[in-house]
Amino acid sequence: MSQTVLVTGSSGKIGRAVVAELQRRGHEVRGFDRVASPAFPSTLIGNLGDRVALEHAMAGVRCLVHLAATPDDADFMTELLPNNVVGLYHILEAARVAGVRRIVLASSGQVNWWQQLGGDLPVFEHQPVSPRGWYAATKMFLEAAGRGYSEQHGISVIATRLGWCPRPGQEEEIRALEWAHDVYLSPNDAGRFFACCVEAPDTVKFLIVNGTSKPARQTRLDMTVARTVLGYEPAEQWPQGM
Fold first, then answer.
1. Which of 139, 171, 209, 227 matches a 20 to 30 Å C-alpha distance to 201?
2. DSSP assignment of 129-149, as one string?
3. What pTM does this model have?
4. What is the rounded CA–CA span in Å between residue 104 and residue 119?
């Protein structure tokens, strides 16, 4: 079923891939970002602290894909707190007021960091978290807030623990780390993964789900929930899509 989807962070690497895949599947897509994307004119410009801009962006939206955030460890008070915590509050409240029926939240595999590096593999979504640092802690907050909105307001919420889709400048870093090839997430697979979240059955009330491409050597983040509930099957493997 075609629906109107708002993608925050639509000008980023994953955002562009998600927009393209949703459009390919026939959805009406609207972007929200701090910068414009020449390839996607339907982008509203604003930031996560601007409730007026957010409420304008949410009008008529059935599904929200929330990607916008400070994407890794950074100063907590000046970057992580306003963007990943306060910004999340504004985005969830704007979605609730607008009557959005599904919210897909970008979490991170970093919430299970220490299990991935030193524990029993693969890591399942139901296991206790072991955050890498403050960035991962903000994603734990995101997952908990999403659960609260699902229970209290009856909104379908899917929190996605993503693998590593390297940003510009990270190519050599991920290339040098063999374990990272097992949690690599290509842009094409990211687009398909989030489209599966958007199109998930209405029976999904709250879900935490891992999302990666095919592991190069060993499965570190279990993909059973992604396959059985969302119908997502990764098509690429490191270094495809780089």
1. 139
2. P---SHHHHHHHHHHHHHHHH
3. 0.97
4. 28
